Amino acid sequence: MDGLMQDRPLLISSLIEHAATFHADTEIVSRLPEGQTRRSTWSELRDHAKQVANAMAELGVTAGDRVGTLAWNSDRHLAMYYGVSGVGAVLHTINPRLFPEQIGYIVNHAEDRALFFDTTFAPLVERLAPQLDTVESFVVMTDRAGMPEIDVPNLLCWDDLVGVQSTQLAWPEFDERSASSLCYTSGTTGNPKGVLYAHRSTVLHALMELSRDTFDIHSGSTLLMVVPMFHANAWGTPYAAAMTGAKLVLPGPHLDGESVYDLMRRERVTFAACVPTVWTMLFAYLDEHPEIDAHEVGLQLAGVGGAALSQSMLERLERDFGATALQGWGMTETSPIGVIGRLLPKHAGLPREEQTAVKLKQGRGVWGVDLKIVDEDGRVLPWDGKAFGHLHVRGPWIASGYFKGEGGDQLDSEGFFPTGDVATIDADGYVHLVDRAKDVIKSGGEWISSIDLENAAMAHPTVGEAAVIGVPHPKWDERPLLLVVPRPGQRIDREELLADLAGTVAKWWLPDDVVVVDELPHTATGKLLKTALRDQYRDHTLPRITAGPDSGAPSRPAGSGPPA
Ligand code: ADP
């Protein structure tokens, strides 16, 4: 028997309509690439989005067509989020930090019909344009005065194309399963692969983010969206903000510590969503300005994801800002939220260190995401906080495969997506990410977590950033090599650092060598580029006498065994 409820499709256009109707005057603050700040409202954003939608018709873009953006977080980009998807076309947000050849590849692979870009990317677009086979129009997201002088065919100015359109439009209704946006994974190996989101998945994912147990986004929130709109839809926060009419603050390309802090303070940000590298830049700025008391911001929630939250970062977020540090885990393929690290009521009375230990786990599954860990043969492993396994996830906002079938079938026999991450899950359902399967260090048949070692190293006051990779070893297969970047003005003493680590990790986990470097390579999404490090240090000679798993070292830490 069917229920008798109205079968209304879950469409992205409903979010902007809600925001404009019920939160018309709530502000959207946007710092433009050119430096000035523009203030608008949800009501104006809806008008703007409808102008984009009408511009799509003028460009001949119809339902299902892909439209690329090379753009920072701005109100214009936000108008495209709603205007392009709202008419059933697919917004393809391109990560400008990819290599130019990869950008060319994905624009062609996506078959983008139009490419919208910020002035910052004009030289890049000029260079790539001859190779972009399907792009019919190139639109610079600026006013007439800001138009760059570049040699690109069919070059249009935002104000001439979008600014002149009518703000009248009835959003079309269509199947909620229709594609809404497209985002390519950064592809540290092989070509990037496209993750194709749907209206339904996007709306459900946004709804999940409103819960107090997740991001707690509500009409009283002021959300600083530092996480890029070209990276997994900025964690879905642009949609969740519209769903509740939260105030949005968009930093454009200005992600240095001073700019981010200034925006936080001026706009009284309550929730900032950033990858760890941005928080690190912010703390470097605060270190240079001890006169600043960051409590003045009134930040309540500091969201960290994309890479592990270290203990030192958690403590600084809580101490300097008085905010709750909230870790999330996910990936482009999971829209991206899979788990969120909130405490449970039973943790409320625990001493601070014990609460911290819980928060350093990546978090518990949110409604809508089924989790499991499996061994090499696909056997399900127990949730005891000890067994390591490959993390598989399933749910209405998890990818079922890649655009155009790249990479073939992805799902296991139960319809779960293998994430490529290795994790433990404890009895409360907290996932602790051990490593990416390809980064875990396999030493004498046991596994060493590079993430845990990096966090332990970063807890040392002289260490700014740390990377741990496995290097080949004749006896143990691999041993850990620690690469460290000193904090500004600090000198790292190798022996002292190793002695410090010996107090926190098992003896046989201790890195065999420590190399001090000026900087570490990162991927286009700001993660450590370990493939490059492994290539560079493949032949590195290890000086230490290795304490391997059978060397009489103290017993292994809990959860350090490989899958059975
Ligand atoms: P990429 O395109 O580089 O894969 P993603 O954002 O999709 O970019 O990366 C997802 C990966 O980032 C996850 O599979 C995981 O390895 C890592 N990651 C995400 N969040 C966390 C976290 N909180 N702690 C540790 N690693 C994380």
From TrEMBL:
It catalyses: a long-chain fatty acid + ATP + CoA = a long-chain fatty acyl-CoA + AMP + diphosphate. One of its GO terms (molecular function) is long-chain fatty acid-CoA ligase activity. It holds the Pfam family AMP-binding_C. Residues 17-403 form the AMP-dependent synthetase/ligase domain. The keyword Kinase does not apply. Its EC number is 6.2.1.3. Residues 453-527 form the AMP-binding enzyme C-terminal domain. Residues 542-564 are annotated as: Disordered. Keywords: Ligase. It comes from the Bacteria. Gene3D superfamilies: 3.30.300.30, N-terminal domain of ligase-like. The keyword Ligase applies. Residues 547-564 have a biased composition (Low complexity). Belongs to the ATP-dependent AMP-binding enzyme family. NCBIfam families: PRK06187.1. This is Long-chain-fatty-acid--CoA ligase FadD13.
